[in-house]
Specification:
344 residues; alpha+beta; Phosphorylase Kinase, domain 1; Aminoglycoside 3'-phosphotransferase, Chain: A, domain 2; 2 domains; 5-stranded antiparallel β-sheet; two-stranded antiparallel ribbon
Length: 344
């Protein structure tokens, strides 16, 4: 990204001040994101939507518009373009959007602070209470089968069929683990659980905090669509209770921090008391489901040549897969503990 192109993009939006500088934000795996400084101050977040992942970017804005028409606050404030749309399109296929920057805000990739876990529980609970009685029939499904483990396993098996005997031998331990563990999650897909409006990517670094570490709201809203509350619960918890990042190679460092789980549940309590019993019963299993599914996706992407997630070195998706699947095993070992805390 050069300043000339950036000025060209920003000239299509109603902005305050003149561009002075910009900074690439590198925490995301999918979209390209930049912090924009005008007149010397951070004022905006600019994102290029990855159209290779999101095949119908307009559906993202359709869902957001549905929410805004119902006067529901998702926190994020999109800046209108000069064409009265919350995005622009350049080069016929590049979708760009601009959002107001929340002054003094911050995100965390990982943490061991129970206060942050408490705030995450509150933010996720507020999100689900806000959208509790939303009519889902008009919402678009942004990514088909996004959190369908059976579909992810099928994609993984298709990738494995392309491997030669040597490659299969190299990955035999992971392949066997995935085939064994996938059966443990069948109950989630065979149970008749309520569909709710979900964020569907509610990991820790998609929760925005103010300078005093108070939770504000969920960001990266591309995947807001109908889903199971298990997906949001599992994704948030798995990134809170594991003190390491997905990039950690030393699997011995991967733990389950029980104190963090308790703090999160305290914050999440309003929603916990408001959902159905069959949902509540499966919440602990979702803390294993989500890292397991992300691990399967990462390994599938690695086998397919790293076409989906951004990588900075060839084996990065393989590292992520081993890390995530290891944590899924640890989460399963803590399933009874989580049930005890939830039911108490």
């Amino acid at each position: 990204m050069d300043k000339h192109l950036l000025n060209k993009i920003l000239s299509n939006f109603e902005i305050t001040g003149s561009l002075t500088s910009f900074k690439k934000i590198s925490s995301g795996y999918i979209n390209d994101t930049f912090k924009i400084f005008t007149d010397g101050y951070p004022r905006y977040i600019l994102q290029k939507i990855n159209s290779k992942v999101f095949k119908k970017p307009k559906d993202i804005f359709y869902n957001i518009d549905l929410i805004q028409k119902k006067s529901m606050n998702i926190g994020i404030r999109l800046v209108d373009s000069k064409f009265n749309k919350p995005y622009i399109v350049i080069n016929d296929s590049e979708f760009w959007r601009l959002m107001d920057y929340e002054d003094g805000s911050q995100t965390f990739n990982n943490t061991t602070d129970p206060e942050i876990a408490l705030e995450c529980g509150k933010v996720l609970s507020n999100f689900h209470i806000t959208f509790e009685n939303t009519d889902l029939s008009k919402f678009k499904y942004i990514l088909k089968d996004f959190h369908s483990l059976p579909s992810r396993i099928q994609q993984f098996n298709n990738a494995c069929k392309k491997l030669n005997k040597e490659k299969i031998k190299d990955f035999s331990d992971l392949i066997n683990t995935i085939n064994t563990f996938s059966e443990k999650f069948q109950i989630i897909y065979s149970s008749k659980l309520n569909k709710r409006l979900c964020h569907n990517d509610s990991k820790l670094n998609n929760i925005l905090f103010d300078k005093n570490k108070k939770g504000l709201y969920l960001i990266d809203i591309d995947t807001i669509m109908p889903g199971l509350i298990l997906y949001d619960f599992g994704d948030t918890v798995r990134t809170l209770v594991n003190p390491t990042s997905e990039e950690e190679r030393d699997l011995k460092k991967i733990k389950f921090n029980k104190k963090m789980f308790v703090s999160f549940i305290i914050g999440f309590k309003p929603t916990l008391l408001n959902i159905e019993q069959n949902e509540r019963d499966l919440l602990p299993l979702s803390v294993a489901l989500m890292p397991f599914m992300h691990g399967v996706r990462a390994l599938t992407d690695h086998l397919n040549g790293n076409k989906y997630f951004k990588v900075s070195y060839p084996d990065q998706n393989l590292v992520r897969a081993k890390n995530l699947i290891k944590f899924a095993q640890i989460a399963l070992n803590n399933e009874k503990y989580m049930k005890k805390i939830i039911n108490s």
